[in-house]
Amino acid sequence: MTDARWRTATRSSNNGGDCVEVADNLPGLVLVRDSKDRDGGTLTFVPAAWASFVGAFRQNAR
Question: What is the pTM of this model?
Answer without folding.
Answer: 0.81
